[in-house]
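During the reporting period the student researcher (J.K.) took over the structure-prediction task from the postdoctoral fellow and processed the backlog of single-chain submissions. One of the processed entries is reproduced below for the supervisory committee.
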Amino acid sequence: MLKVKKAQFHGIKLPELSIGLDYSDADVQYIFVSHAHADHIPRNRQSLREHTNLVIYTTPPTAALMRLRGFKEDIIELPFYETLTTDQFNITLYPAGHILGSAMAFIESGVGNILYTGDCKTPASPATEGFELPKNRPVDQLIIEATFGLPIYRWKSTEQLQSDLLNFAEESLDAGYTPIFLGYNLGKAQEMMHMLRELPKTKQIHGAGYPLCAVYEEYGINLGTYKRYNRASSEGCLLFTPYSGLESGFASHIKKKRIAYCSGWASHEARRTQTQAHALIPLSDHLDYFELIKVCEYLQPKRIYITHTPDPKVVLHELQQRGLEAVYLDIDHEELG
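J.K. obtained the following structure tokens:
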């Protein structure tokens, strides 16, 4: 099997193939970026510029979002399902269901096949291209995130969550309050806007999120009627901002407002006080615990590598009880059983 190594800062390295997955160092020939969230984009920009033999690949929507967020290095766009062939491996990107453009990397080589999920979600976020695993192609090694890898995390259906968002918005507006939805400027904000697109109210999004919406529309995601946040005209609109926006004065002039914190972490009641929220809506763009187990069982890989999890022992025990070999990757240890 291929050696899998966790990077010092973030990402995964496959040294035998000179591949970096959401990787920042320039000691590989190929870097594949799963999606445009900051913690997955290469950080060591100066080093990347100095190594002209290094190539960065990602999907077209992710490339567009990365450029809007200030990434100036060269990117080669690799659409979903199109295979890149090299002397050592073939790689095909599959929709990951996390945010627009998010991709899982399926790497086929003479020493085995690896599927790297990056951040992923099934059932997929409705503001993405969907979620799809490789069909009829064996996965020998699976590298999968387990951000919500505890059995306390079981998500409601998309339809139920959409109903929760609509009810919060309509009840707030009917009572004369301005509804504010807390979520990341990239991904979560657009997902909520898409789910609330039919409400006959203008949506205003935080300034940093506004230009990203155009990419979603370019790729066919309907966000309804929206504008950049304008303090003077924001009262009575549907407002979307990260929590940091509130800390910076977003909507501070609006006396009658209600806040919904929308995240998988909204499963914890403590977040109500931390975020000043009137409502907690557990809207996540990651696998819940049960879908995580289901994906692993479906693929039946020879080895599973778990990353990004609150307590690796829980999910490792569950997988091992089901006859699956699973280890945890962290920075200080390449593998933890």
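The committee noted the following: The longest strand covers residues 89-95.
J.K. will present the remaining backlog at the next meeting.
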